[in-house]
Design goal:
Elements (H helix, E strand, L loop, with lengths): L10 E2 L17 H13 L4 E12 L2 E11 L4 E14 L2 E6 L2 E7 L3 H10 L9 E4 L4 H14 L32
Antiparallel strand pairs: 1-2, 2-3, 2-7, 3-4, 4-5, 4-6
Length: about 180
């Protein structure tokens, strides 16, 4: 998420809520495009769960966070985050994200780690939405389908205008043979 928090007038948009006066529509394409990229970089087979944090929205700008727990050795999970920032202008859609490995934790502690991240955020955003992927490509596809159902048509058609503010980081390494144990 954006360091230092939002400025005056910042309000989070709960999932499924209408925009509050002065809040704006945000950038609806940003979250599904970020989740799609997380899936591409990590591979559905390596993802245990995805946490989708409610975004900060100001007009046609949006800042958000997607986190994933990925299979590692034994009961350990790698924690990977993808903070994003997006804006829509008369010149088009601008989207910048990074996929970063943050560390490891045991599977039973990941939920508490994510709850702590929500509490320490720059604004009271509420709890993240948790989606179990379980290493299943169909589960990731079903998550992506929910975004297309909400906004059929153009979510992925439009190209991002201009280069992102910073180049995407190289993909996060996947666990080697035997790294995924359930």
């Amino acid at each position: 998420m954006r360091g230092g928090g939002g400025g005056p007038g910042w309000r989070p948009r709960p999932f499924g809520a209408e925009n509050a006066p002065g809040e704006g529509p945000g950038v609806p394409e940003a979250l599904p495009r970020t989740i799609r990229e997380v899936g591409r970089r990590l591979g559905a087979g390596g993802i245990d769960r995805i946490w989708i944090f409610p975004p900060l929205i100001e007009g046609r700008r949006e800042w958000g966070l997607v986190a994933a727990s990925c299979y590692a050795e034994g009961e350990s999970r790698r924690i990977v985050t993808a903070p994003y920032q997006a804006r829509r202008t008369g010149k088009g859609l601008f989207l910048d994200w990074k996929v970063r490995e943050q560390g490891t934790a045991t599977a039973d502690r990941i939920g508490r780690v994510m709850d702590g991240a929500a509490r320490r955020g720059p604004a009271p955003l509420g709890a993240p939405r948790v989606v179990e992927i379980g290493g299943d490509e169909a589960a990731l596809a079903a998550l992506m389908a929910t975004f297309v159902e909400e906004r059929p048509g153009d979510l992925f058609r439009e190209a991002v205008a201009g280069a992102p503010a910073s180049a995407p980081e190289p993909s996060v390494p996947r666990p080697g043979p035997g790294g995924r144990k359930r």
